[in-house]
């Protein structure tokens, strides 16, 4: 489907379905005031062939 081979089911681990980077805030000091963090099968191998991609949008609102 996406060119990535499926992992042998006997070798699958819980860590194949986890990503710990979304808790790290991005730099929101640009003109738009937001940062998007994309997560794909490169970071979460368990997403392979499922057609799933995750994202986190962090927005800093300037008031005043």
A few lines on this structure:
The chain is an all-beta fold and 64 residues long. It has no helices and two strands.
What are the salient characteristics of this protein?
64 residues, mainly beta, two-stranded antiparallel ribbon, 2 strands, 0% helix, elongated, RmlC-like_jellyroll
Account of the protein in words:
InterPro entries: RmlC-like_jellyroll. The chain has strands spanning 34-39, 54-59. The model has no long low-confidence stretch (mean pLDDT 76). The chain is built from no helices and 2 strands. It starts with 33 loop residues before the first strand and ends in a 5-residue tail after the last strand. With 64 residues, it is mainly β. It has a two-stranded antiparallel sheet with strand order 1-2. The protein has a domain at 24-64.
Set out the fold topology.
Elements: E1 34-39, E2 54-59
Antiparallel strand pairs: 1-2
The total of beta strands comes to 2
Order of helices and strands: EE
Quaternary structure type: single chain
Give unreliable regions as ranges: none
Q: Give the radius of gyration.
A: 16 Å
Helix content: under 10%
Sketch the major β-sheet: 2 strands, antiparallel
Helix count, DSSP H or I runs of 4 or more residues: 0
InterPro entries: RmlC-like_jellyroll (IPR014710)
């Amino acid at each position: 489907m996406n060119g990535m081979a499926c992992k042998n089911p006997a070798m699958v681990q819980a860590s194949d379905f986890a990503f710990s980077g979304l808790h790290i805030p991005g730099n929101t000091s640009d003109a738009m005031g937001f940062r998007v963090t994309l997560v794909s099968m490169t970071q979460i191998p368990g997403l392979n062939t499922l057609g799933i991609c995750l994202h986190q949008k962090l927005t800093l609102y300037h008031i005043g």
